[in-house]
Each structure stands twice: as structure tokens, then as C-alpha cells.
Design brief:
The chain is mainly α. The protein folds into two domains: 172 residues, no CATH class; 53 residues, Double Stranded RNA Binding Domain (2-Layer Sandwich), CATH 3.30.160. It is built from eight helices and four strands; from the N terminus they run ααααααββαββα. The strands form two sheets. Strands 1-2 form a two-stranded antiparallel sheet. Helix 1 runs antiparallel to helix 6, helix 2 packs across helix 3 and helix 5 crosses helix 6. It is rod-shaped.
């Protein structure tokens, strides 16, 4: 039984990583479209991060992708280890994914947008319009900052929704990791939940099924059947 728990937790971690990767791809596509609508190059965000952190556009793109993957790994671990976050439906997966996106926005993007991006945005705008004065560039950067923050929030919501939906649909498609009660057929996501169910729901069940061969009593028909197969096998012809 413990082997199945380990395998199912590994699936959750793998699905979280996959969801993080797909989320980054979708987020990047929407982001490119968003900056194009603002009259900026599609890679403007990567250019600003590259300027601010001194890694260039390719380095910023790699950091962006790695961050999305790491968040996916953490998300997969959280839904594996914390019972409150255990995904039992696609809807719950999407909700938890959006929550993860909001946390990522608050902890990672917001501090960077306030401290790193404004000077980098001014440098990018100055390179695009070298004839403009510093005051004009500053006004342009200040006018774009609210759109950058609002767009960043929306992008992280999109990322989280994709992360949660990929994880939720993946778990829904892998019923082999679930645990069924042999007495009533109820299905649970972990061995711990199954054991808790058995102790509370079936501990006081009367042994109403009697073996005709030996008189032994059992709590369920399934339990009786297992006993008959093991203790009173039919003779081979």
C-alpha cells in the first residue's frame, strides 16, 4: 500500500511541474500580446528583467521559465503533503492554482516590479526613443507602471489557472492512485484517508456475514468472499 502512496505523490509532483511549464508558456504568449498592445516590443519584459539583473534577454527568459517550474514543483509538493490542499476535483485544482499565482505575484513579481523594473523600463524607453528627454522618459515610465502591475496580476492569475487545471485534470485521469474501501467501495486519495474512514465508518459494523463451512463471522460480503477463497478453496476437478 505504501508503494502506491509514493507513486501517487510522485504523480502529483510531476503534474505540478508539467502544469508550471505549460503555465509559463501560456503566460508568455499572453504577455507578448499584452506588451504589443502597449506599443512595446513583445520581449519588453525579458528586456527589462535582463537590464535590471544584468543577464540579457535570453537569461531573463530562462529565469522566468525556471521560476515557473519551481513554483509548479512546490505546488505539486503542497497538494501531495498537505491534506487541506489535496486536489479532489478539477475546480479545486484551478482554485488552488490561482491562489498559488496570487502568492507568486505578491512574493516575487511585486517586489521586482517596484524595485527593479522602473529603472530598467526607463533604460529601455530611452534606447527606443534616444531623442526624448529624461523627464519625458520618466513620465512615460510612470504612466506605464500601473498597466505593468495590473497586467502582471492578470498574467499570474492565468498562470495559476493553467497550473491548477493541468494538475487537476491529470489527477482525475489517474484513478489508479486512489484507494477504495473494500467494505463499501468509497474512494479516497490517500492511505491515511482510507484508514481513517475504515476506523470511523466500519469499526462498529456487526459481523453479519457467516461462513457456511466453518461458522466464522465477517463484516462484509467481500470479506467473507476473501475468507472462503483462502480457507475453503474449491477442489480442482
Amino acid at each position: 500500500m505504501h508503494r502506491y502512496v509514493k507513486n501517487f505523490n510522485w504523480k502529483r509532483n510531476w503534474l505540478g511541474t508539467s502544469g508550471g511549464f505549460v503555465g509559463v508558456i501560456v503566460m508568455t504568449i499572453v504577455m507578448v500580446m499584452m506588451f504589443s498592445m502597449m506599443g512595446l516590443p513583445g520581449e519588453a519584459f525579458f528586456a527589462m528583467v535582463g537590464i535590471g539583473m544584468g543577464v540579457g534577454v535570453p537569461g531573463a527568459a530562462v529565469l522566468h521559465t525556471l521560476t515557473g517550474l519551481i513554483i509548479g514543483v512546490i505546488f505539486g509538493a503542497a497538494v501531495s503533503k498537505v491534506s487541506l490542499f489535496r486536489i479532489t476535483s478539477v475546480g479545486k485544482g484551478i482554485g488552488l492554482g490561482i491562489l498559488a499565482g496570487i502568492v507568486a505575484f505578491s512574493v516575487l513579481f511585486l517586489p521586482m516590479a517596484i524595485n527593479v523594473l522602473p529603472p530598467a523600463m526607463m533604460a529601455l524607453l530611452q534606447s527606443m526613443q534616444p531623442q526624448a528627454s529624461r523627464e519625458m522618459i520618466m513620465q512615460m515610465a510612470q504612466s506605464m507602471l500601473p498597466a505593468l502591475l495590473g497586467g502582471g496580476f492578470v498574467l499570474h492569475i492565468i498562470y495559476g489557472a493553467v497550473l491548477g487545471s493541468v494538475t487537476g485534470f491529470g489527477l482525475k485521469a489517474t484513478p489508479d492512485g486512489r484507494y477504495a474501501c473494500k467494505d463499501c467501495g468509497a474512494v479516497f486519495q490517500s492511505e491515511k484517508e482510507l484508514m481513517g474512514h475504515a476506523q470511523t465508518a466500519h469499526k462498529q459494523m456487526k459481523k453479519e456475514f457467516t461462513c457456511e463451512a466453518c461458522g466464522g463471522s465477517f463484516r462484509s460480503k467481500a470479506e467473507l468472499g476473501e475468507h472462503v477463497k483462502a480457507a475453503h478453496p474449491m477442489p480442482k476437478p
